[in-house]
Amino acid sequence: MPAIDWSQCPAVESVPDRVSGAWVFRGTRLPVATVIENLEDLSIEEVMEQFDVSREQIAAVLEFVAQSLKAPVPPVPADAHSL
């Protein structure tokens, strides 16, 4: 699975001197990875309450991830060597 290009998501940003440049929700210090990881065990409402993030912010990131996963994967060149 290809890596997600977070630079194309308007809901997040990476600032070198903020949280070591991690992708965070725009205007916050909350890493996107923290929310995604916690959605495995918590409801959206619980994540919103625990991390002070809005439903719209979560929805924007999840929609971006879903759209990214639908993007076509470029074909592997026929002469590529397997590891």
Helix/strand layout:
Layout: E1 12-14, E2 23-25, H1 32-38, H2 44-51, H3 55-70
Antiparallel strand pairs: 1-2
Notes on the protein architecture:
The structure is a single chain. Helices cover 37% and strands 7% of the residues. It has helices at residues 32-38, 44-51, 55-70; strands at 12-14, 23-25. It is built from three helices and two strands. The protein has a single domain (6-70), classed as Winged helix-like DNA-binding domain superfamily/Winged helix DNA-binding domain (Arc Repressor Mutant, subunit A, Orthogonal Bundle), CATH 1.10.10.10. The protein has 83 residues and is mainly alpha-helical.
Key words describing this protein structure:
mainly alpha
What is the rounded Rg? 15 Å
Question: Superfamily at the CATH H level?
Answer: Winged helix-like DNA-binding domain superfamily/Winged helix DNA-binding domain
Strand order of the largest sheet: 1-2
Question: Under CATH, the topology is which?
Answer: Arc Repressor Mutant, subunit A
Secondary-structure element series: EEHHH
Low-confidence runs (pLDDT<50, min 5 residues)?
none
Quaternary state of the chains: single chain
Count of folded domains: 1
The shape, in one word, is: globular
Share of helix, binned: 25-40%
- Give the total of beta strands: 2
Percent of residues in β-strands: 5-15%
SS field, number of helical segments: 3
Average predicted local confidence, pLDDT: 89
Major sheet attributes: 2 strands, antiparallel
Please state the second-level CATH architecture.
Answer: Orthogonal Bundle
- Through-space gap between termini: 16 Å
Question: Which structural class do the helices and strands define?
Answer: mainly alpha
